[in-house]
Fold each of these.
Amino acid sequence: MLLVLSLLVLAAVSMPWGPPAHGSGESDFAAQREDMVRTQLKGLFRKAIQDRSVIQAMLKVPRHLFIPAGNRDWAYADSPVPIGYGQTISQPYIVALMTEALKLQPGMKVLEVGTGSGYQAAVLAEITPNVYTIEIIKALYQRAEATLKKFGYETVVVRQGDGYFGIEEFAPYDAIIVTCAAQHVPPPLFDQLKTGGRMVIPVGGSFETQRLLLVTKDEEGKRRSETLELVRFVPLVRSVRE
Ligand code: SAH
């Protein structure tokens, strides 16, 4: 019994670091994607993702095409993957957990802060066409905009700038997802959230464990928050990089 338990624990701990076990043809990537959904989104030791629209989206979006070619073999691993410029694409489970927490319906308007590779924006766009995303690093912004267009996510509006201020032009939003860790919930983002809206945001110091918060705006405009998970995200920075 003890042996079985420790093997299970070892399996859980070693999973993110396991070497990619597949080749790299397109059908093989599709098989890896199915594995990812089956083992990581509904796996042991975590709260299973229930929302069908999130599961469908993650089955569909070709995550490997959002990752620089040299790192593609890691695209469906249970871990974040480097995307250049010191940034990472989030672990698939965290993408699913955050998307599910938004309770998105088709037609809702959603803002993402931290476009990175564009992958999270594509997952959102599988659920609603009204996706707005902002990235502070110019090269990532340009690459993500091109990738999203190339793979059929033309409705996603991509901007470059400091997402601390949201994108006022298209506010208010039904949902806001922040994919970099902030020191506090940026007031401009809370202002741009509709009454009844939902925001998911990691809050805490750089490169330490942060709290993934679900922030909601009630009928009186008051803020409520709850912690969903402990996470590690790259920091929300404040200087725009050319
Ligand atoms: N959601 C992304 C991963 C994001 S990594 C994906 O699916 O690939 C976090 C991103 O936030 C990085 O690209 C980083 O450059 C960006 N970022 C950091 N601070 C920001 C800010 N103030 N405004 C907008 N983007 C920011």
Amino acid sequence: MRFSRLLVPTTKETPNDATLASHIYLIRGGFIQSVGGSGLYNFLPLGKKILDKVRAVVKDELDKAGCQEVALSFVTPSSLWEESGRYEKYGKELLRFKDRKNNEFVLGPTHEEMMVNLVRQSVKSYKQLPLNLYQINLKFRDEIRPRFGLMRGREFLMKDAYSFHTSTEDMQREFALMEDTYKKIFTRLGLEFRVVEADSGAIGGSGSKEFMVLADSGEDTIVVCSECEYGANIEAAVAKPKTYDANSEIKIITMNALYDDGESKIVHFALPLSIELQDVKACNALNANELIECEESDTIDTLVVDSSLEGIDSLSANHKLYADISSVCEGDSCIHCGSALTYTKGIEAGHIFQLGTQYSEPLGCNFLDENGKSVPMVMGTYGIGVSRLLAGIIEQNHDDKGCIWTKASAPFDLHIIISNIKDEEQVLLGEKLYEVVQDRGVDVLLDDRKERFGSKIKDFELIGVPYGVIIGKKLKDGLVEFVTRDGLVKEEVSVQEIESFLESRF
Ligand code: ATP
Ligand code: MG
């Protein structure tokens, strides 16, 4: 590709709403463009190219694992969501609308209902199972606070896969296969990541794991063991239980629990004095949507006591239950090996769930087993935030000058810069190298613009192609420069050797 023909509107200006490196550089590097409405982006040629590369890695590994790609309608009839019971439950993130005939629809934020509907119409017998179907398609979630560019958009690209099985064992086999497949995907993309135990959120089900791209800017706090493999989102983390006795001090926290149906109630939580309440665990214990702070109240109607206090506390209430509602602290002991736990930050890039029959039962997605009995299929569901991955790659790979794309995600393999387009010798060499490497299948960008050298270098640094060749003033002495974007390491190579040098590199 010739830079002179490329639509890549790079800019020096940092968007006002941008704080994360990935957000700043994806905009400044001309990869994406905000559409005005928050959380909506256009992908410009380079952004689209990277998205396609990431998507291709995801597709390749899934296909190798035996998954099949489909494409589901983005506009989803509300009736399917009513069948599953999620129409109300999903809350305001679900964008609902009507067509001219007054039929109600939603824009799919996730596609369990749609995929179950596809399968219940086309699969009847155990002989057709197992099945793992996926798509790489748009999702829409009317996020309350869209932010950080591609990290938390409202419209975004997700790979969502759904598997269907005759038994829980077979679903668990597939779940393990998907965990393995995801590890291959994230490794190929050049990411540093960690697989952690997770809370299952609005998708439901039990036994879920998240794939966290490690980055200080990540929105998720993850608890990791300093010795063994254990890792968990703080929302789901557990530590070795501490022991308390009847003399241990207890604190009571009062909160207002909000429910799907708009109801709310005052709830009290009892914990050991030194332990913090974990909101997500607390919500799960009550099946509530959200907890908000409220004034203390004297009447204790509903009381949730942390399980570490079971058999010790002497509290009473009309409704009393025990549940793990405690936050794990740094320094707590690992439940597996007893070593110290620490916190780190991650970006949730993938999430895999063991669903069971949570959707197949209400939607009547059944199959006839070997005895001719009709039973619901056992399901798993597996997501990857494909567009979020672009942000994740840059959060992990950038410097103060711009992006440093990993090999598998880079928009080009090589970036050749002709410093001065008026210098015939430079142009001749640039054009020749461009042809030669291109013929060998290297995806190369040739900066043949009538721009100042300084701005060409700035664009090279900002765009972040992993390698560059600078044809500049030293050509007079028979030398060009080979630059590795990561670290901006420069090597001088003689003109006679540059072709074979590039051949050995690419
Ligand atoms: P989060 O906790 O970050 O809101 P989630 O748990 O709601 O995400 P899932 O329902 O698990 O998301 O969706 C699967 C994947 O889709 C996530 O792991 C994430 O990579 C991606 N994703 C979710 N929401 C967004 C968003 N608003 N913008 C971009 N990617 C997203
Ligand atoms: Mg998730």
Amino acid sequence: MTTSPPSPLTTLQNKRVLLGLSGGIAAYKAAELCRLLVGAGAQVQVVMTKGAQEFITPLTMQALSGQPVHTELLDPTAEAAMGHIQLARWADLILVAPASANFMARLAHGEASDLLTTVCLARRCPLALAPAMNQAMWSNATTVSNLGVLEAAGILMFGPAAGAQACGDVGPGRLLEAAELLQLCAAQFTTGSLAGKRVVITAGPTREAIDPVRYLSNHSSGKMGYALAEAAIEAGAEVTLISGPTDLPAPDRCKLVPVISALDMLAACQAHPSDIFVAVAAVADYRIAQPALGKIKKTAEELSLSLVRNPDILATIAASKPRPFCVGFAAETDQLAEYAKAKLRSKGLDLIFANDATSTFGNDAASVTAYWPGGEKVFESQSKAQLARRLIALISQRSTATHA
Ligand code: PMT
């Protein structure tokens, strides 16, 4: 496995990009951008303002994105399928290209007057604007002031470029070229904060055999662990994903080690040394003392299974020498903070993420609270993809601080 710098073709793979178009002659470039994003493996949903539809048709964007285009805020059919809140939750990145002076003004003033401004307001992911307007409009004091408000709110600006404009003027206000916008989108998913680090992540459930056809397991889907693997890859790490059985495809550019039982998982973890070890797997705490060699027959009215404790994989790795930076998860139904902090101490961890067992297993979104010696941080509910990026940022920060 190599860790060559990621190209747009890999970092945008399976990323959910919401491409917003506001009104402007440069809207035609958004068609090319949409084509490039889809070609790079991104899933693209398009939202168009009324103004944008004067310059380019929704049909064009639908054909290029392969998805119905969203245009109306109050559309009963859209609300039933993917309404504004779902669209905002769905996106990993929102890019408005072109962003007109009017759109920037409405966004700066917190308007939710159409679908695009509303989705931007309800977002949980990074938002970037690619401004496109006449050079005098770009330099106008009101636009400059709006730009200040938007940048202060953490909104990214892609461009504008300077040069000849459609109206005949020359100056700043040109929409960046589609290929440049593609690069900037891809860069949002690459941080380099874990460059050169070996990260081992456990994910999914384990299965403990009862007999050759039956097993004990749990509802872990692997989504959280796989999202963390993706985010660690984006951050430049060399990732090994040690996974119990899931239905998920392995992320690109990571070494997948499939395992079945807790004992298999422990052996795989011990065979793969790391700088950072992240235990996301829901490991069965117990296994059948002696799995039957043949299928157990339905003869008795009652059947007892004798269980023995499985080794604690995370605690074992945390006690090894030299030990990696160790991160655990705690899935609890009650007393979340108390139990998570107790696991942080008893397993000898550097960081633990506590999540509610009743709402996290199998879901696409999660909220967690991080605890480490002397600190804590809440991460509100968001998609596991987005959450994973934030958790990886914290892991990178804490591991640097711990080893400083
Ligand atoms: O896979 P998803 O559907 O996306 O769901 C994600 C998740 C709920 C599985 C995940 O967010 C999560 O909370 N994983 C840990 C679940 C768990 O088993 O927690 P625990 O409190 O029992 O274990 C604490 C820690 O010790 C965990 O890091 C676990 O991986 C580790 N452990 C536990 C037992 C064991 N024998 N070996 C271990 O390494």
